[in-house]
Amino acid sequence: MMSRLIPLFLACALGAAFGPALAQTAAPQPGQVAVAGTVPDEATKAAVLARLREIYGADRVVDQIDIGQVATPANWNGYVQKLLTPDLKQISRGQLKIDGTTVSLRGEVANEAQRQKIASDVATSLNPTYTVNNGLRVSSADQGILDSTLANRTVEFESGKATLTPAGRAILDEMLAAMKKLKERKIEIIGHTDNQGLRTTNQGLSQARAEAVKAYLSANGINGELLTASGQGADRPIASNDTAEGRARNRRIEFRIAQ
């Protein structure tokens, strides 16, 4: 039987817990992080609690961890430590669950960029034997308008260029209508690429494409002072770059409400 990290809960932030059974885990009080479940030894328990107390503060972490005879995957404790990062504090009403080599994240974050970054950082911190289920959702109603309008589609450009295709402009026309509903909200436009080619080239291309989107929106009724454009190159993938499908998903324009 493999050891499991069952959710650690934090009301209005995140939560976490370890072990094979969540049913006995008491609900935390507002502001607390309850960590529960079964780990194989005192050293693992101490390392988990120390890391959580470092992130959240010792007075907020509620220890409900048991010690039991459970087997763990290779270097499991090391991977758990990689998952317990300050990024978890960005998740509200959340849950982290590590069940052997399956990691699940749930809860709310401020914007789509944050949702993608947290999931991407989790995936890249683990080896390929781990599976990551990203159940994070954007809590902002305004961000939801942008995300539902884009609907996981890709704003298309001519290959290797920052020139919008007709299909790309059609999607931006829909985004224009959505942005006009948001009144004076500031919006970040972020370009991304796959990892093919030189890093500096990808960085420049992602920046140029973000700028092209900003220029199109500004020319069609959106106040340019409310828009910022930046390029992330290949640094923030949302899918594997090992497949054509994954690379296509990573070549994208992201819109997020500026915080």
UniProtKB/TrEMBL annotation:
Main location as per UniProt: membrane
Recorded GO CC terms: cell outer membrane
Location relative to the cell: Cell outer membrane
CDD domains: OmpA_C-like
Oxidoreductase in keyword set: no
Alphabetical keyword list: Cell outer membrane, Membrane, Signal
UniProt signal peptide: 1-23
Segments traversing the membrane: none
Residue span(s) of domain OmpA-like: 144-259
Protein name per Swiss-Prot or TrEMBL: OmpA family protein
Organism (species): Pseudoduganella albidiflava
Lineage of the organism: Bacteria, Pseudomonadati, Pseudomonadota, Betaproteobacteria, Burkholderiales
